[in-house]
Amino acid sequence: MKKHILPAIKLTVVMILFFTVLYPLVVWGIAQFAPNSGKGAIIEHNGNTYYANIGQSFSDDKYFWSRPSAVDYNAGGSGGSNKGASNEEYLAEVQARIDTFLVHNPEVKKSEIPVDLVTASGSGLDPNFSVQAAKVQVKRIAKVRGIEEVTLNQLIEKHTEKPLWGIFGPEKINVLKLNIALDELK
Question: Which residue spans traverse the membrane (predicted)?
């Protein structure tokens, strides 16, 4: 047993140095070649700084509402609700979201509400929603802002991100970017 202790200690020291010094420095070095030096997709608007790749809370009627968050949009604690589709508490939470949406969007039928407007993503921080989630909110926003629905639909089309290489994933819209563009409409 004594002949194994010294190699084990040496290996432990080498691994500590590798995983606490060398590996983080390599990852940091690679990140320097990424956009914004690996600090994330930062957007500045009206004197505020936002991360475009982290979900933001929008619940005012003059904005496109975000996807709900299980972590209250706190990037320090990413995670889902971990409640199953048969959990009564979860079903009540989703029903409350549906009811709230219908109150603010009376012209929309319950069957027309996209699932991503009433359920949180696995991370709770999804910055995107579906094109349908944007289009179902157009009438409310047009009425509140006094903007023509055609203009809002053009804005949605302009901010729709196509699937990667045209095949991987659905079309999506970054809610923060869409709402900033909405504020910039004259």
Answer: 12-31
- Of the pLDDT bands very low, low, confident and very high (cuts 50, 70, 90), residue 43 is confident
Q: Are residues 161 and 80 in the same domain?
A: yes
**Neighbour count for residue 7 (Cβ, 10 Å):** 9
Place of tokens 């809370």: 57
What 3-state class would DSSP assign to 168?
A: strand
CB 124 within 8 A of CB 71: yes
Same domain (yes/no): 169, 121: yes
Q: In the predicted model, is pLDDT for residue 40 greater than 90?
A: no
Same-domain check for residues 97 and 171: yes
Q: How confident is the model at residue 154 (pLDDT cuts 50, 70, 90)?
A: very high
**What SS3 class is residue 6?**
helix
Residue 130 has a pLDDT of 93
Residues 21 and 48 reside in one and the same domain? no
Helix, strand, or coil here: 44?
strand
How far, CA to CA in Å, does 23 sit from each of 34, 47, 133? 17, 36, 41
Same domain? For 83 and 160 the reply is yes
Q: Tokens standing for 15?
A: 């691994």
